[in-house]
Queue: 3 jobs
Job 1
Amino acid sequence: MTKDKELQLKLFAAKCRRWIIEGVYCAQSGHPGGSLSCTDILTYLYNEALEVTPENADDPARNRFVLSKGHCAPALYSVLGLRGFFDIGEMRKLRHIDSFLQGHPCMSEVKGVDMSTGSLGQGISAATGMAINSKYLDKTGYKVYTVLGDGEMQEGEVWEALMSGAHYRLDNFCAILDNNGLQIDGKVDSVMSLGDIEAKVRAFGYETRVIDGHSFEEIESAVTDFKNNAGSGKPFFIIAHTHKGCGVSFMEDNAGWHGKAPNAEEYRIATDELDSAIRALEV
Amino acid sequence: MGDMATREGYGKALVEFGADSRIVVMDADLSGSTKTGDFRKVYPDRFFDMGIAEGNMVATAAGIATCGKIVFCSSFAMFASERACEQVRNSVCYTNLDVKICATHAGLTVGEDGATHQCLEDMAIMRSIPNIRVVCPADCASTRLAIKAAIDNHGPFYIRLGRSKVPAIYGDDTEFVLGRANQLRDGKDLTIIACGIMVSAALKACDILSGKGISARVLDMHTIKPLDKDAVARAAAQTGLIVTAEEHSVNGGLGGAVCEAVCESSSPCRVIRAGVNDRFGKSGTPDALLNEYGLTAEALADRCEKELNASR
């Protein structure tokens, strides 16, 4: 990856984080922690991998994305807004009574949202459905990406979906785990340990990669491997190690920021940090 | 069509309409029982067995439906409606996608398998969810038309089908309008409103009552949602007593829906709900179960006569 491209992606991600904080602050509710941990992954997918724009968002042969951890809607909305799917200023009305930006992604309200999600475990199933359609029905070969939370992997349906993804040899399907290690009640390992996720997913028949989910170079390398995986008959699973709350010092690696809005003082600190990050990248 | 279970009518309808390449069928390891296997034989490329994982099946169906397909999803009613309930609500109904849940082996007449497999709450649960239409056809001819209606009308459907053979009521030229009751007999003393296998019992009950000088109207309320409120209001105003009959809990299903409509009508009347009275099922032959739970034509006629006398 060129330095230039990396800088561009970092700048996009920093702006995205700024809008996540703006949206959650204005709503005085929402999920900043996980939104900030998956920001870089979504930034990469929408800028480099999906090739989806407002113009081709209804093309049956487009690539698909499903945010299975639907509570991180602020990250998805920020990315879509910055990519021109709607006026990014709408983020200030996130979760408001007259806004189309629902608390969890709603496909009938927001252009660019491929599936309504929010109830954990269902998004990955829907994503495998889209991949089945690509591989066996339309046969257009489009690819389907989904982002899961690690807490979400405690849902039995995730494992059902992984099972059917392998059974149907969905080599056009890529699940990315936002592995920040925290959930509402604390550390994933103390709430309900998932054990060796990579070994489990490999045992299910997946090709796996383990990366730093905040390194665009590593995200690109894994996604490129996935794209080259076509024809293998194996679905792809990327374990992205991330930090909850990444980009805002006091939110980082803190389960308390799973589903809490900043107060005025916290908002000021967070936006100061993000604004200076943006300024530094713009130079 | 002669006497056949509605699930058999479903399998035949899938094959009949299956040339439409938008149609995709999924099952959860019960394709022989639900009769989706009929479709599988003819259109194997558009059939997906999802194994014993109903929640995943329904949400996967939703994903396929986002791509412009019409997805029929089958399992036993118990698992299609209650195991996968939240997937039906959030992935299918909230999104208003073209997924048709065709649930077989509903009600007591599953028989010997007993309570864990006898779904008696599905219509109540499904009809409380926005966007979904709930249909419980009485025989194979009407099942065929219900499947046709599900294909022709965009959005979620829950179609409730049975395991056991039921008498043919309709000819192939019968009319089926979604949300409109079929009046099978006219009468002035009371109205029996039935769905599913209880429609043929209602017709027999009507004959028994007729022999006693009681004139009963019989409505086949094949669509539980949207309910034909006008037909219910007319029955209330014109016959003054309604008896509902369903192979389902008396709570929240056809009886519950009719009560709601009657209460909101301009001339309310008494409504008696024949069904399973807040109990679980049990093992037994279908006929023995219908007898034990008071869902035979004779029991229905007795109940109608008693309630009519009490009203007079």
Job 2
Amino acid sequence: MSERLPWIIKYRPKNLDEFVDQEEAKKAFISWYESWKKGETEKKAALLHGPPGTGKSSFVQAFAATYGLELYEMNASDYRRKGDIDRLLRVTASSGSLSGKGKLIFLDEVDGLNPKSDAGGLEAILQLIENSKHPVVMAANDAYNPNIRPLRDVSLLIEFKRLREGAVVQLLSKICEKERVRCDKDALDVIAKRSEGDLRSAINDLEAIAEAYGKVTKDLAMSVSTYRDREYAPFEVLRRMFNAKYIFQAKDAVSSANIDYDTLKVWINEHIPTYYEDPEEVSRAFEALSRADVYMGRIIKSGSWDLLSYAMEMMGPGVAYARKAYSGKFKAFKYPERFRLLSETKKARELRDSIAEALARRLLTSKATVKSDVIPYLKVIFTSNPKMAAGIAKAYGLSEDMVKFLAGSKASEVMSYLKKPARARKT
Amino acid sequence: MSEQPLLLWAEKYRPRTLDEVVNQKEVVARLKKFVEEKNMPHLLFAGPPGTGKTTLAHCLAHDLYGDNYRQYMLELNASDERGIDVIRSKVKEFARTRVAGEVPFKIILLDEADNMTADAQQALRRLMELYTATTRFILIANYPSKIIEPIQSRCAVFRFTPLSKEDVVERLRYIAEKENVKYSTEALETIYELSEGDMRKAINILQAASALGEVTVEAVYKVVGLAHPKEVRQMLQLALSGNFTEARNKLRELMLNYGLSGLDIIKQVHREIFSSDIKLSDEARIMIADYAGEIQFRLVEGADDEIQLNAFLARLAFMGKKFRPTS
């Protein structure tokens, strides 16, 4: 028995002949490569850009295979550190290779580069481009992302367009033939239309339907295939997620949000009790969200972005499958209360923050510790002993607003102690 | 006189020199050697909160440079001043000028270093190497295991032990005498119990209790009760009665109005679980404590306090029936 590969990998183009519907990009790249070899290029690197699923990475692989090049590939999770890039430069430094093949360096997803945390990384890539004895190709969804401007400046931009619907249908029907799955033409039309030129999502949809039902009909395509990768507003995401019939739908739902994962987390946090009434379901859903949050915490702390998929699986399918039975309820999702409360309590939080700031340096500790271990006792003093409170307010230069924050209804008493000396001097 | 400025006792009675430090004898003895030799390696101070790590770092700097020591010391707080970029630029600026006096280096004090991400710690490690000729780092951490190994191996590690009951009570007695506060020894012992060996907290409780009048056991409990909002107990009771939504509202009140962190809240929950004021079977107390412990762990690992505590409350609301005593 052979290992079962996802179709998206199984049907990747093996060479340039199999690579369809990006004729312009293909031509532009080949001519850049030819002149690079002769040392005649103006631009030392090429930057392939275009929406997801338009074949940027597949193209580079097919190209390397066709031209018999050894491919050195790094993607977003790899090249964060300068050292890694430098190592790549060293490894590829020799002009030839043991096998006598030429080399091609491919940096995928460069728009994932973070200019702050990967500061050295960007410079290292520029160095690599400058010094490499082999052509350097990069790929990005958004070539105009300001973070990668220096890379754009030294590269020839090659655009990958969304695939035409007709081309997608043709490719899908070829796969159907090879897999010996009955696929109706009108079903493929639906999938192709909804993929909006993203071949990867089209093939994934096709596989999902074929796997589950053994055939691909228009009705199935209508119910399973979704407009994907396009962004959704949070309430739509929640509706799709909670009402997902299949795990992949819940997963797609959370990955298609037009808000970042942290904000999405807050939306889900808000609406678990909106959607679920049974306490067991509520508890199971929060357990999944809690796990997702732990993964996200680990990602932030360790920078291991490869954990993201676990976080998404807990956040989407994990929460959606907290249900005991599928019901497909319609619920109205509203803007999370937390955001509203946060803006309402903003002033108080800022005051607490500035008190903490005023005290932290003097008490040789952090603002966080002042907030948790000092301010609560200060409040006791300020509400029960205005005289002592006034002395403290004076010693630490606390403003009237800060006194009000700490003393509440006793604020005027504290303030009267504070103002006394001025009157005393007059008399 | 009411118009006189009045320092918080936690600041007023802080030791200024190594000689004034009464506990952590072993640590102090080793630090004094550095002062004698006017040289030291990078240091890592590790131990529970309120055991004197930051204070001793300041005492050490004081003994090295004299009263104006703070101009030779850069104090950075890893949790307040997030981002290695901020730290990098500050260190760079600070390390540029040399010290004029006999001590050939300046000190960079990095508090809560265990709150830094692994990436930031890697960058820190490079900074330590880069400026080693002109600076020494003192890193302070509650959990030394969260400091990456390459940094640990570059530092002399000092382990701070929790303060003993005698140490804390004696210090409190000393302060109370100086401040002419009436107190009972029992009250001071109660403060020690409630502050869990954290000197800073103990002194804060003492001062707040004195604000109410005589420092008695009752006054101490009153202060701690006032400082710890009763909403925590209400939140627990709501959750246990199966009312998740109301319990969540209380949680938000605690976080936003009282400014408590998730850790503050779960620790207080932990204390409440074993208080006799909450009616629960012993079996239930243990089960809840176990889950509270798990949630506390996740709070340290996770990113969002409210989500973690909601998971806790939702579990309580679900299990509530089982937990409620039948009698």
Job 3
Amino acid sequence: MSVRFESHDVDVLVIGAGGAGLRAAIEASAMGARVGVVCKSLLGKAHTVMAEGGVAAALAHVDPKDSWKVHFRDTMLGGKMLNHWRMAQLHAQEAPERVRELERWGAVFDRTGDGRILQRNFGGHSSPRLAHVGDRTGLEMIRTLQDHGVHQGLEVYMECTVSKLLLDGGRVIGAFAYWRETGRFVVFRAKSVVLATGGIGKAYKVTSNSWEYTGDGHALAYEAGAELIDMEFVQFHPTGMVWPPGVHGILVTEAVRGEGGVLRNSTGERFMERYDPKRMELSTRDMVARAIYTEVKEGRGSPHGGAFLDISHKPAELVKKKLPSMYHQFLELADVDITKGPMEVGPTTHYIMGGVRVDPDTGASTLPGLYAAGETSGGMHGANRLGGNSLSDLLVFGRRAGMGAAEAAKKIPGHAELDPAQIEAAEREMLAPFERRGGPSPYEVHAKLQETMQSLVGIFRVEADLRKAIDEIAALAREAERITVTGAREFNPGWHLARDLRSMLLCSEAVARSALLRKESRGGHARLDYPNPDPELGKKNSVARREGGAMSVTQAPLPEMPAELRAIVDADLELVKV
Amino acid sequence: MKEAVFHVYRGDAKGGALQEYKVKVEEGMVVLDAIHRIQAESAPDLAVRWNCKAAKCGSCSAEVNGKPKLMCKTRLDAMPLDRPVTVRPMRSFPVIKDLVSDVKWNYEVNKKIPAFTPKKDAEWRWKQEDIDRVQEFRKCIECFLCQNVCHVIREHDEKARFAGPRFFVRVAGLETHPMDSLNRTKLLKDSMGIGYCNITKCCTEVCPEDIHITDNAIIPLKERVVDDHYDPVIKVIRLVTGKK
């Protein structure tokens, strides 16, 4: 193997240090594996920190009739039955224990009157189910995992970005990365690799996602030969900030509605009555996002092009106690006191339901040696994710992927030899933007991609737009091949973006191609030209994979749900909730 | 549209200087927006850390017009724009490049703090009032602004003997947790050097999460240290009752 670069050998390499990555690393390490964690930011800054409202788990502390079955049913119905049934089942069954485990590791959740973990309402959940800490649940979770992990001897490589997975035949055996600080390259040899890099939101202009959310894991997996499923299902969170311009897209937690917030249009009407009279503001995210979008489009928007979200009818002290960060966020960034008046909110790109196809029990991808968990994996949430189901997803499947990866690593006696040609190719690819002259800047190409995805592959889609988007993405991919990066290799954000952009382009292509192929409307995917769900397509996953040099997207049958689980979904809620 | 002049530190461990950039000012704009605009328009290699852009992750700490701030919540309309806005990296840590400083020391300090260790066979029930204080400490977003302004670190560079306000807050969160069974006062006294703090409250003033670092974390911890290590009567009572 190449000796030119710093290199490290681990049993399990985890890429990403958000909730899923840390939970995977903790589990693998507890099983005796030597674990390396690579993350683009400092430890503890991953996107999980932005999760606000809570973690969904049928603890039944507030509603004693809640159970895994009800949670399973809610999740499947919220996902419009496109979820992998086994993932939804494991998730609902294991989430309570994962939350209790966090408490034993030091997390401090808000309490019920009798001293247990308190749970709040959220859209699509038929019982108050979200364990929470005010509106900073993600911070509590990531800090708990971080501090627990630190004492388990994880080797953490902070501010380090993986640019390529290294293969031996069809097996993943390592990764090529660079240190952001120095720009130097580093090579990892691993017996198994877990991808937990989060989502792809930065491909869109209006997003709640941070700079890290560039679809790295999705793209690494795809390039290595793994399958991505259901990439057309992007979640537009109904409530992002719309003003001022600098914070357009920043998340406004669903907990505002969970705590009793109401949505109104410019005429003062509680418009959700027209879209989902039964669930109103606590309808699923896909419904509420489309409702707000439609109100604005039809001329009933707020001054800055959103809807009014109002919690000011609740006592100011309660608002400050249960939604402290929303209170500060609006007061400091938008000059709005949410205890006194409404916020302006509108849809923002938040989450991707699609991702790396995995085996539910082990997190194994379709490629040997490669695992995925959390937002990077697909299947769990089907066509639409319920709020709160992401934090529970990353605990349940982070742990399972860590277990799967460590178990597999145990069976491998030693590290495979890395192929110097692959490493050289990875190096050339990274250095090329420095050697080119006169090409576009990465920021320019990124802005164009965001414009394309926002305007052509957004909340409502139509064939002509999607075709145009695919052409534009292809043109931008060619432009990206000419990008010129200036400056040195030390902490150079332009250079980092040039690499991240390649992942975003790939993911964008997968989203647009899968969206074109799915000629129906379902969950997060709404087609103006096919406004209804198609029962036949409801039995199919979209599958994107690399064939030759090009992306192929096909539709394949969903795994079949066992009859006893089907019965839970088909039964009336009252019969399940006993 | 109004224009603002920014003087941004450009340099690395070897040295550097303020460089001037002009930025168009939009309504409600924050310093981080301006830095991003400079990156996109004229200095693509300008190094800066950021993630959430909503004061939740604590990545974009810097010194704006000499004051320690999160750039994502420092509004331009709250500053005089008739003179240049200066943006420098945090002074108490070595510069890596431009606005990015080397904060690894903090992660090393953190590793020395014994983790949450729950009592055996206890019932996991407690009242909200019992954890309000713990939750205050757990609000910390690790922006390290408190570390940056603490004079024990900033003026005297006592990083080898002093852990800094951030980690007193962390220990306070553990020590006041109703289920934790350890006692960390010896650690506070010896390797964390809590005695060096002379409660000037600089840390509290800059905390973007409004944690009452000095009053609620450091002073009660100092009292515990005194009780455990300097007050023989209380020490005996604690030994007998087993209370920490």
